[in-house]
Amino acid sequence: MSDGYDTQACSWTVDVIDPNSAQILSWTPVSSPVVILSNGSAGFTVNATGTGLTYEWALDGVIQAGMTSSATSFSYSDMSVGNHTLVVTVRDTYTNQASHTFNIRRNAAPAVSGYSPNVSGITNYRIGYQQSFNFSVTASDANADVLSYVWELDNSAAATLVGSGATAVFSPAGNTLLLGPHTVKVVVSDGYESSTTTWSVMVNYFSDECNDLYNSASTGSNGGGSAPWWEIPVWGISKILNLIPLYCGQNLGPILRFNQEFTQSQTT
Fold first, then answer.
1. Are 99 and 90 in contact (CB under 8 A)?
2. CA distance linking residue 221 with residue 211, whole number of Å
3. pLDDT one-digit tens code per residue, 38-85
4. In this structure, which CATH number among 2.60.40.10, 1.10.260.40, 3.90.1640.10, 3.40.50.970 belongs to the domain 111-265?
5. Which of 201, 185, 121, 200 is nearest to 149 (CA)?
6. How far is CA 159 from CA 163, 186, 267, in A?
7. pTM check: above 0.85
8. What is the CATH number of domain 23-106?
9. In degrees rounded to 5, what are phi and psi of residue 111?
10. Is 190 in contact with 141 (CB distance < 8 Å)?
């Protein structure tokens, strides 16, 4: 373009697509990575154009036999925990080809390998309304994800249950409105999946020493067992009878309440 004195040039870049050449126009899922949960699956599709198209799918470089269409799927059992690549290659009659790579993350749910107190076979833990009780879990993640912990009392956040990572302290703080049964729960999440651990607790009027007589009945300190009285050694029965007046008060009311709780635990 010229005015007789100066010139100006313009240019455009044009991509000419051969309508007969294999081209991948779109794909699903579009997210990356595609997450396959520990008991889940995912479907994969491509939208391609060209003449006489064929499809080849390769997982981590291994061509998958029988997968010859524009869509396929994989389950959690088809791959190990970790990161993988799935490459689909489209070829046409003229040996032209196009490919797309899906990044896949095979997830594993957080694994809780330990908890305190031990929840196995426990009916209830006894907690004094003026006392506090510690809870904790030991968790890991096969994908090395950073884990988060959410602690709840009766399925909601509570000021009396203060969590800090994998540990929490339940403190009724003398609130008589909390007397009775409750559920302490922790949900451990890796951002994709979660694992839940729960404890059943009973808030009462007694001291730690008194409640420990119940909590350690069959599984050790804070074990929360419920062994029938006839399985408790003679020396154990004697110890209980001696300690009840000392730690639970001399008046008959607390003793009867303790006896009622202990007796009920044998029938639940």
1. yes
2. 11
3. 999 999 999 999 999 999 999 999 999 999 999 999 999 999 999 999
4. 2.60.40.10
5. 185
6. 10, 15, 33
7. no
8. 2.60.40.10
9. -105, 120
10. yes
